[in-house]
TrEMBL record:
It comes from Streptomyces morookaense (Streptoverticillium morookaense). Residues 47-168 form the YbaK/aminoacyl-tRNA synthetase-associated domain. This is YbaK/aminoacyl-tRNA synthetase-associated domain-containing protein. GO terms for molecular function: aminoacyl-tRNA deacylase activity. PANTHER family: CYTOPLASMIC PROTEIN. Gene3D superfamilies: YbaK/aminoacyl-tRNA synthetase-associated domain. InterPro entries: YbaK/aa-tRNA-synt-asso_dom_sf (IPR036754), YbaK/aa-tRNA-synth-assoc-dom (IPR007214).
């Protein structure tokens, strides 16, 4: 990642990560070695995907993946789920997500609900360290990527993660057509 001055294994930067993300890395058991999950320190004001690409290079847009949290409702019950899609696409919330979760209605979860449930910051939500039991829906294009740039749990910094590592997270399901 030549665009960034300092790229290191995320486990070497636990002090810069929010607790849920740091804890997930400490307990990492996925088939991808934890040392392959990298951390790059970025300015908090550059956390949004478009701004990151403007700041470090437009090619980053193709390597970025966004984690959006969806609230799926059925019979009075609400299920929160994370959706991973490439930065230049949008999650098909009312189609693929709703059907996969068996929900009557699905929409983006209220931000205050997401922040409270995850212990992460707006603009930095990441699938690494989400609450146990959450479905993590990963677009096939994200899973097939050699690596993607995702949030680090806070607005400061990004994680650079092999797509296959996201596909192997607890609760992960790879779905074709999730991002459109």
């Amino acid at each position: 990642m030549e665009a960034f001055d300092d790229v290191r294994p995320a486990v070497d930067r636990l002090d810069l990560l929010v607790r849920p993300v740091a804890d997930a890395l400490r307990g990492w058991t996925g088939p991808v070695p934890v040392e392959e999950l990298l951390y790059v320190d970025t300015e908090p004001e550059r956390a949004d995907t478009a701004v990151l690409a403007e700041s470090y290079g437009p090619w980053l847009l193709d390597l970025s993946a966004n984690c959006v949290v969806v609230a799926a409702k059925r019979g009075g019950e609400v299920t929160l789920a994370a959706c991973m899609v490439l930065g230049h696409t949008r999650a098909d919330v009312n189609g693929v997500v709703r059907r996969h979760l068996g929900a009557r209605k699905a929409s983006f979860a209220p931000m205050d609900t997401v922040l409270e449930a995850t212990g992460m910051e707006y603009g930095g939500i990441t699938p690494v360290g989400l609450p146990a039991g959450w479905p993590v829906l990963v677009d096939q294009a994200v899973a097939d990527s050699p690596y993607v740039i995702v949030g680090s749990g806070s607005r400061r910094g990004k994680l650079i993660v092999p797509g296959k590592a996201l596909a192997e997270l607890p609760g992960a399901t790879v779905l074709a057509g999730l991002g459109g």
